[in-house]
Structure formats: C-alpha cells, structure tokens
Design a protein that fits this description.
The complex is a heterodimer of chains A (about 180) and B (about 260). Chain A is mainly α and about 180 residues long. Chain A is about 85% helix and about 0% strand. Chain A has helices spanning about 1-5, 30-160, 165-180. Chain A starts with a helix and ends with a helix. In chain B, about 70% of the residues lie in helices and about 0% in strands. Classes of the chains: A mainly alpha (about 180), B mainly alpha (about 260). The interface between A and B is large, with 45 and 58 residues.
C-alpha cells in the first residue's frame, strides 16, 4: 500500500481521530454499522414492500396491455382476411353471373342470326327453285321447239326429195330418230 | 470551508469520518450520525425518491424518468436471470437494493467534497458478510446437507477430492473477503488518485516558474481519472451485484 506510506508521515492537522488511515479507524465502526443496518434495512423494506411491487406491476400491466393489443390486432387481422375472402367470393360470383348473362345474350344473338340466315337461305333456295323450274320449262320449251323445227325440217327435206309426208309422219320419224 | 493547504494536499482527509449529530454512547457504543451516515442516508433517499416517483406515476406510456427507472428494474432482473436463472428472482428485492445502494454511494462519492461511503472496509465488509450469510443460510435451508456438494463437484476420481475439497472451501471463504476488498480498494484507490493529481496540479501551479507548464498536465490527468472513476463507480456496483447473483446461484444449485 503505497498510499499508506504516503499518508502516514503527514501529520494530522486536526489531531482528532488519531488514526492516520481513516478507513481503518475503529472508533467509528459502531456508528457505521449501526447506520448501515438501519439505512440498508430501511431501504430494503421500502423498496421490497412498496416501490418494487408497484414498479413491477406497472411493467407487467404494460406487457399485458401490449399483449392484449396484439391479440386484438390479430383478431382484427383475421376479420379483415375473412372480409377479403368474402369479398373475393362475391366478386367471383358477380363475375360468373356477368359471364352467364353475356353468354346468354350471345347465344340469343347467335340464335337470331341463325334464324335470320335460315330465313334468307330459305328465301334464296325458294327463288333458286323457282329459277330452276323456269329454266327447266324454258329448256323444255326450247326442246319442244327443236322438235317442231326438226319435224318441219324433215318435212321440208322430204318435200325437196319429192316425198309428201304428213306432219304426223315427220314427227313420228323425228321421234324415232331422237329417242331411237 | 476554510481548508488549510495541508488538508488539500492530504489525500486521506476525504475519508475522515466526522460526527454531525452525537448519539450515545449507548451501551458503550458511539452511534453518532456522521458525514458517512449522511451520504448513506442521502443515497437511500435519492433511490426511494427516484424509483418511488417512477412507481407512483406508473404511466402506461412512461415519461423519461419512469423509463430510466424501469430500465434499472429490467437491468437488475436480467442480471439475476442471467446469473442465477428464474429462481434467482426470489432475491430480486435484495439484489436490487444492494446494487442501487452501492451504485448511489459510489456515484455520490464522485461529487466533489462528498463522502464515499463505500470507501470504508467496514461498510463493504458488512455488505459482503450479509451476502455470504444469505447464501449460507438459504443454501442449507433449501438443500440441507446437499449444499455441501458445492465443495465436492461430482465427476472427479476420489483421490482428487483430497485436493479439490480444501481448494473449494478456501475459494468459498475467500468470497466475502474479495467481495468486500474489491469494492473498498477500488473506491479508496480511485479517490486517492483523484485527490493526488488535483492536489499535484495546485501545488505545481502555486510553486510558480517552470512548474506552471507541468500543472495543466497534472490537471488533465485528473480530468481523465475523473472519467475513469465514473466508470469504476458504475462497474464496481455492477460487479458487486453480479457476484452476489453468482453466489446465490450456488445456493440455488449447489451441484454444479
């Protein structure tokens, strides 16, 4: 202890106490211990009985409050998720309905278009039939004309050869030749 | 204060106990209220005021002061949990009181002209004996004679115990001694150093001449030591408390 040797030679100015090293002066040990016991004991009682339980309670209460708030937040989050799911479901339903409506409308339009085109087709085919009938008639007429021309030509050619043939005979001959 | 030059230069003057109110002698014992008792009382009053205020306000969203008090509460609780486990929290009020008692005593000692209660071996020794008494009494109360396992760690071959048990016993007996001496010596030496360098600066300056050039160096050293002493004051309170936790852990779980 170098400080001891430093302090020791210094004469005590006050002369009280007598000891040159105050921390080891036994004259105040009783007072030191007495007040230490009273003050430390008192401090322990005050802290352990009143202050610390209250301080701990405050901290605990805060922890509880935070835990409660977190629980509440979790609950609300769950609710929000549920609501979102419900909304998505609604959205999906609405979308399906909309698609259905659109499909119906399209089907209707398509049906109308089919009906219309069928009508037009019918009309067209009716007119086509009519035209064909007419063509057939015209062709038959033309053919019958050819027959009469051939009959007349036959009569005329026979006349040139000097053979008198009746119209009926000529016709019969033409018929024979053409259908032969 | 009319301090003589010798008083300023004497580094031991700050440790002198002076009677403020004479009480006794009662039963042959002088129980006077001294400057040491005053600073002890001041520390206790400050602790109760500080933590009492924080506890009585008890706001859910803490103010700054309440926040600091709660940090102190959590600090001590974590210290006990770390060193002695959840069971150690039984001793929370005791260790809390011990830590802040020493902490405030050390910190009040840093105020110039203040008395450092923890710079007296009788005080630190009494606290260390209190700690070791609690460890012994609780250790035997909880574990019975199994507490003696503390001195004979399991798993060693039996001839080793001839050597091991005395070592363990000595190390246990040394605990209160080192606990008391560590705190006492740190506070004493630190305050002597502070006083020496501060006194040195004044002495050099008053000598005049070329010495004035060196005086600021001594003064600067004093400032640096002051910062170091604040660290030591906090650290030694922590060391005292954490070692108490470690010793209590032995009482809780002697077979280590």
């Amino acid at each position: 202890m170098m400080f001891l040797s430093l302090a020791a030679p210094a004469p005590n100015a006050e002369g009280s106490g007598g000891a040159s090293f105050p921390p080891f002066d036994p004259s105040h040990f009783a007072s030191q211990l007495f007040w230490l016991v009273i003050l430390f004991g008192g401090l322990y009682i005050v802290l352990s009985r009143f202050v610390l339980p209250k301080l701990g309670g405050v901290i605990e209460k805060r922890g509880d409050t935070i835990a409660d708030a977190l629980d509440e937040a979790a609950r609300l989050d769950e609710q929000a998720k549920e609501a979102k799911q419900k909304q998505e479901q609604h959205l999906a339903e609405a979308r399906a309905k909309a698609r259905e409506t659109a499909d119906k409308a399209r089907d209707k339009v398509e049906a109308e278009i089919a009906e219309e085109s069928r009508k037009v087709d019918e009309q067209l085919s009716a007119r086509l039939d009519e035209a064909e009938t007419r063509i057939r008639k015209v062709r038959a007429e033309a053919l019958s004309n050819v027959e009469s021309i051939a009959t007349e030509a036959t009569q005329a050619m026979l006349g040139r050869f000097g053979v008198k043939a009746t119209k009926a005979d000529a016709k019969a001959a033409v018929d024979r030749a053409t259908k032969g | 204060m009319n301090l003589s030059f010798r008083q300023i230069a004497d580094p031991m003057h700050q440790f002198e106990v002076k009677k403020l109110i004479e009480i006794g002698p009662i039963g042959g014992l002088d129980l006077s209220f001294t400057n040491a008792s005053f600073y002890m009382l001041l520390g206790c009053v400050l602790i109760v005021a500080f933590f009492g205020m924080a506890a009585s306000r008890g706001k859910l969203v803490p103010s700054r002061m309440q926040s600091i008090a709660e940090i102190g509460y959590g600090f001590v609780a974590d210290m006990i949990r770390g060193a002695a486990g959840e069971e150690g929290l039984k001793f929370f009020p005791f260790i809390f009181t011990l830590f802040f008692f020493v902490f405030f005593a050390n910190m009040l000692g840093m105020i110039p002209y203040a008395f450092t209660t923890t710079s007296h071996l009788i005080v630190t020794g009494a606290l260390a004996l209190l700690v070791i008494s609690i460890v012994l009494i609780y250790g035997f109360y909880k574990n019975g004679f199994k507490f003696l396992k503390l001195f004979a760690p399991a798993g060693a071959p039996w001839p080793i115990y001839i050597l091991l048990v005395p070592i363990e016993v000595i190390s246990f007996v040394a605990r209160p001694v080192t606990l008391a001496l560590r705190l006492f010596a740190n506070m004493l030496a630190g305050h002597i150093m502070l006083k020496l360098f501060a006194g040195f600066a004044i002495t050099l300056a008053s000598l005049g001449g070329a010495y004035i050039v060196i005086a600021p160096l001594a003064f600067g050293m004093g400032i640096a030591l002051n910062a170091l002493e604040f660290l030591v004051a906090g650290l030694q309170a922590y060391v005292f408390a954490i070692l108490t936790c470690v010793y209590i852990n032995d009482a809780l779980h002697p077979a280590h």
